[in-house]
Write a structure and sequence with these properties.
- The chain is mainly beta and 162 residues long.
- It has 3 helices and 10 strands, in the order βββββαβββαββα.
- The strands form 2 sheets. Strands 8-1-2-10-9 form a 5-stranded mixed beta sheet.
- The longest helix is centred in the last third of the chain and has 9 residues.
- The protein is globular.
Length: 162
């Protein structure tokens, strides 16, 4: 086992706990209600938002994964980055920022089989008494941005950048 320790953001979506590598998290904000709709967007995508001059695709992570979000008092908008692209996804609640030793995951076992959105999960471990699914951010970005038509699929760059 390696001595590498991965920092991660732990958060809830519906009844599930998820983790994202801290390197993929740019910031956590309060949800933004106004988004410009995107014709033909995948279910769960709200549209485009302008965040300090950067256009971002925004949506609800639970809806994208086919999960039912819980009505909560602490929803958050997480700005994720992968390969210089950014997206803004709503989650139900931030739980913690913690460290996880590399390799402490059940990558092919029973925990992954419990989640229908397996294609976006890189591994599973325990957080307290609950299973926690680590997201494969490349797969999440592919779910949101790839196989879409139109200029919006390139969103997440500065205006005027070419």
């Amino acid at each position: 086992m390696s001595d590498y320790v991965r920092r991660q953001l732990i958060f809830e979506v519906g009844d599930h706990l998820f983790a994202a590598d801290a390197q993929a998290v740019c910031e956590v904000l309060e949800p933004i209600s106004a988004a410009t709709p995107i014709p033909g967007a995948v279910p769960g995508i709200h549209g485009l938002i302008n965040l300090r001059g950067t256009l971002l695709v925004t949506g609800n992570l639970g809806s994208l994964l086919g999960l039912t979000s819980k009505p909560v008092a602490e929803p958050a908008l997480v700005i994720f980055e992968h390969e210089s692209r950014k997206i803004a996804l709503e989650i139900d609640r931030v739980v913690d920022v913690t460290s996880a030793p590399d390799g402490d995951e059940d990558v092919n076992g029973r925990l992954l089989k419990a989640l229908g959105a397996r294609e976006v999960v890189a591994g599973a471990s325990q957080f307290g008494q609950r299973p926690c699914f680590r997201l494969d951010m490349g797969a999440v970005f592919a779910l949101v941005l790839e196989d879409q038509r139109g200029d919006w699929a390139g969103a997440g760059t500065e205006r005027g950048a070419g």
